[in-house]
Amino acid sequence: MAEKKETKNTNKQLSPEEVVKYFKDEFKTKIKSSEIKKRATGLKKMEFVNIWMKIDKSIFKDFIKHLCDLTYPHLAVCSGNDLGKTIELIYNFSIYFGKNLEEISFNVAVEVPKSKPEIETICDYIPGSLITEREKQEMLGIKVIGIPDERRLFLPEDFPDNLYPWRKDKETQKGIEKLYKNLHEGKVKK
Amino acid sequence: MSSETTQTTYQLPIGPIHPALKEPVMFKFEIDGERIVDVDVELGHVHRAIEWTGMRRNPIQIIYLAERICGICSFVHPMAFCRAVENAVDIEVPERADYIRVVHGELERICSHLLWAGVAAHEIGFDTVLYLTWEMREKALDLTEYLTGNRVTKAILTIGGVRRDITSEHIPKISETINYFNKNFIKLKRAFLEDKTVKMRSQGVGILTYDDALKLCAVGPTTRASGVKKDVRADQPYAAYSDLGIDYTTPDLLTGEVNGDVYDRIVTRLLEVKQSLEIIQKAIDQMPAGDLVSEPKIPKLLNYIKKTPGEGVGRDEAPRGEVIHYVKFDGENEHPYTWKVRASTYANILPWIPMLKGEQIADIPIVAASTDPCMSCTNRVGVVNNKTNQKMMLDKETLHKLSIEKTRRLMR
Question: Domain limits at B136?
């Protein structure tokens, strides 16, 4: 378990634009891109805010620390995309929940090279991220540095090593195809 | 042999298949006498690679695949998926569809919470309450069938709206069902919340503190029972919830305090049943006229999605908590480039550990069930005694008997 931290936040609540500014002032060019998307819903046309941000891998851990200082976030899940040469990890946070209709969905994307797919763990700040980090290790072949528990989560023990189902390269596709095509191998006449 | 004689704890594996868990999951308990010292959870026994399959289907096909992720949450999963697609490629939803979505979402919550209440009562040995709650649930299922044509897989959603209307013809049956629930809710409340034995079995058991709930990213009634105000319906404007004024349901509304124990989780869910009834009534009263779906021609819709690159997340408050789907389209293919599903139980796995530590073996069924894990059940538990290397099997009936015996002991 992480050390005891003050989790109730006393900071002033920032608007979506101010949240983006807060991180841009802090990390400058290391924030590769940011976008605020708003969507209205219902009869009253109230707006909901999504922030999408791409950051550089080198500031990732520091970024999470700053986010926790700003307000303690809820990590919904970490999604991942295989983009060919890189793997993109998207941490779907939500901040400012608990205040009626003021929540902001905060999606932080970070790319890691496929040749060296490594990312630091954030379990020391957000212990609840363990499950999703373990999933990323087995499904996308990400090496999470410093993860407290690196066992498999969903995949069975007899699933081949070095085969990561969510990767999109040809080798993976072939490997997976082999797994399910051979399921009824015994019944096929040669 | 010294290690064998100095060992004071023994291991108790529960699962992968077990009565308190509706779907397979494996617990490994470290037991000292009657007390649980440590817990380890193993998952993946029913991993069906739905996301992998979905990445080879078109979005309309995925709606029906998403509906089959879970039999109880057969509305919220397609709902979160549809919202993710609508956010990703910017598809409008007509206002009337937003209201109809709310009605079905809340109806599903009532069905799910009553199902859970029955299971929880069964776990502590009150089968009469199980019959009461499931009789009530039957009325909600009948209404679901009346409105959608199906009791479980409702097939009501589509991208950009809903597939069936709620007409004036439907209103009397809805009002009749709401009245039935309001009348019988008092009975349910008395059976659950005022009973001395239920209190003895649930108060102070399976505690999840505010800090743990927040840090372990717990969701739904599990986190609200610990005092964390987190409810997607109230947090962010989505569907018609922002028009209807939803408030966070925490146990202190009824009891004046938050303890984060099993009792609080029962209180939270029962209050939410009441809240859902009010929401349905409001949604029916305020429902505007208009279209059901923004683009009724499916080939046109699919063609638009195929040509539009984008990524989006859809969140939805399922009966068990926040569900989130992430979708990315590359603008070339009809099927999504990535589809990631996170069900609510996924986030409620880690909170089991602090809840179960320090509790008794007889409390395992009710504490494990108290987060309403969305996982099916059959009956076998193996107990391995390390000291004597002796193996014995505890089947469903025996473990259930242990739980009932504890209730009876307390009643005396």
Answer: 50-203+235-244+286-347
Residue with tokens 């004597």: B388
User: Who among B217, B242, B248 is closest to A75 (CB)?
Assistant: B217
The Cα of B305 is separated from the nearest Cα of chain A by a number of Å equal to 18
Pull the structure tokens for residue B363.
């409390």
Q: Tell if the CB–CB gap between A131 and B346 is shorter than 8 Å.
A: yes
Domains of chain A listed by start with CATH number: 16-157 (3.30.460.80)
Higher pLDDT: A187 or A11? It is: A11
Of B98, B237, B248, the CB nearest to A47: B237
B26-32/B35-42 β-pairing: antiparallel
- Chain B residues in contact with A41 by the CB 8 A cut-off are 93, 98, 237-240, 242
B61 with B178, same domain: the answer is: yes
Q: For residue A90, give the chain B residue with the closest CA.
A: B326
- Please, are residues B26 and B41 in contact by the beta-carbon 8 Å criterion? yes
| Residue from B86, B80, B142 nearest B114 by CA | B142
Handedness of CA B123, B224, B105, B302 (dihedral sign): negative
ipTM here: 0.88
Integer Cα distance of A151 and B114 in angstroms: 36
- Pairwise CA distance, residues B321 & A175, whole Å: 36
Q: Do B33 and B140 fall within a single domain?
A: no
- Chain B window 45-84: which residues touch A at a Cβ cutoff of 8 Å? 47, 49, 51-52
> Is the full-model pTM beyond 0.80?
yes
Query: Is B357 a member of any domain?
Result: no
- Site from A74, A138, A159 to mutate, B interface, most B CB atoms within 10 angstroms: A74
Report the DSSP pairing between strands A74-82 and A86-95: antiparallel
Tell me the count of A-B CB pairs closer than 8 A.
Answer: 134
Cα-Cα-Cα-Cα dihedral of A55, A72, A133, B87, to 10°? -60
pLDDT of residue A21: 92
CA-nearest of A41, A176, A76, A65 to A122 is A65
- Residue A14 touches chain B, beta carbons under 8 Å: no
pLDDT at A7: 47
| Residue B25: strand, helix, or coil | coil
DSSP secondary structure of B331-361: SS-SS-SEEEEE-HHHHTSTTHHHHHTT-BG
Q: Which of B49, B214, B288 sits opposite A72 (nearest CB)?
A: B214
A101 touches chain B (CB under 8 A): yes
CB A2 to CB B215 under 8 A? yes
Tens-place pLDDT, residues B182-237: 999 888 888 888 888 888 888 988 899 999 999 999 999 999 999 999 999 999 88
Task: Report CA torsion sign: B52, B57, B58, B63.
Answer: negative
Q: Would you call B10 helix, strand, or coil by DSSP? A: strand
| Residue matched to tokens 């999605």 | B305
When CB atoms are compared, the residue of B235, B286, B350 closest to A130 is B350
Both B100 and B22 in a single domain? Answer: no
